[in-house]
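Possible regression after last week's pipeline update?

I re-ran a chain I had predicted before the update to compare outputs. Posting the input and the new output here so someone can diff against the archived version. Not blocking, just want to make sure nothing changed silently.
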Amino acid sequence: MKETVNANIGSVAFTLDQDAYRVLGSYFDDIRRRLPEGDAETMNDIESRVAEIFREKVASSMRVITLDVVRATMEQMGSPADFGEPRGTEQTGTEGGVPGEASGEPAPRKLYRSRMERSIAGICGGLGAYFDADPTLIRLVMLLLILFGGLSIWAYIILWIVIPEEPARKFNIHKNR
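New output (post-update):
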């Protein structure tokens, strides 16, 4: 049993399951960070388009928007990177920014167990995000190493214990900035 959330997207009310709401909110926040500071009109257009796609995919207003529908919609809309670079990467101050932005060096990457790309513990998904590789390919390599390469299942369990889980993202789907 999953909890549901009522959300107004593009001036249309929808019921989303909690996972779908979280992922869609992260998607909107990522796009919002890439748009110019005062560009609320573009964000409203994006939300309206997402609402149109939801209405196409879910025939009845009583059905709940699931994570699969949200992922398919995000794939249809495109990656947030298509909207440009995140705001703040050209800033020179560190106040309110990410460490490493002021000096022009990239923020240090950290290895986490993935919350989204997980089959068992999110280790392969986390490795895929860290090395910018396909998690399925990493799962396949891990399986082959366990079966034929001598990598023990204990190594996987140790990674499960040692690698921290990715921090949960906080977001507000109705936030304009």
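Follow-up from reviewer: compared with the archived run. Residues 90-103 have pLDDT under 50 and may be disordered. Marking as no regression found.
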